[in-house]
Amino acid sequence: MLTVALPKGELLKYSIKLLQNVGIDFSVFLDSGTRQLQITDASGTATGLLVRAQDVPVYVEYGQAHLGIVGYDVIREKKPQVAQLVDLKFGYCRMSVAVKESSAYKVPLDLPAHGRVASKYVNCAREYFHSLDLPVEIVPLSGSVELGPITGMSEAIVDLVSTGRTLRENGLVEIARLYESTARLIVNPLSYRLNQDNLSDLIAKIRDVAEAS
To answer: 101, 148, 165, 173: which sits with the fewest CB atoms below 10 Å from its CB?
Structure first.
């Protein structure tokens, strides 16, 4: 039986809808009254695991799940040993550098050398500023990174931006975009090579649905 790792949060409802279109129903996860973290599809063809988005590639890499759905941002940050197969074309956002709107920084290279940049995406932020040959101190935060520039703890942030509303409401503005992110279908490489439980057929169906959207 195939096992699929699904991400908690914003991507979950889109992930479940996608899988319903290929005959797998994990909609129980959307029931606010359930606390189940593992369920079996009514047809008995697949098991679903509900995990934090950052943990999806971990379950796939270690073989506890054959497939997973996760944002490209997580893949870029974690660099897991998984095969990235399909751009699912939902969950769009972008990784951006943002600063206080009132600051004099208009592009990243305006930031002072050895200044501070707050981010939940430490590896992505570090790689980006290294590519600019601009030495900065990356301040790791697990939430509300917008407070970095507001409180003066950092000159800038690197964070995911969707509509930009949170930045605007906190007096911040984007000055650069690192990359764009959408949900991706990932697979355990060994399971893929062995074509466990006709995995390739399911992947082909998911690819067809994604390309038709």
So the answer is: 165
Q: Which own/partner pairs from 49-54 qualify as long-range (CB within 8 Å, at least 24 positions apart)?
A: 49/3, 49/4, 49/5, 49/6, 50/6, 50/8, 50/12, 51/5, 51/6, 51/7, 51/8, 52/7, 52/8, 53/7, 53/8, 53/9, 53/11, 54/78
What domain count does the chain have?
2
Based on the domain organization, do 138 and 35 belong to the same domain? Answer: no
Is residue 194 within a helix (H) or strand (E), and if so which, with residue range?
helix 189-194
Strand partners, 159: 96
Residue 58, pLDDT score: 97
Q: What percent of the chain has pLDDT over 90?
A: 92
- Kindly state the tokens that stand for 58: 């971990």
Q: Is the pLDDT of residue 143 over 90?
A: no
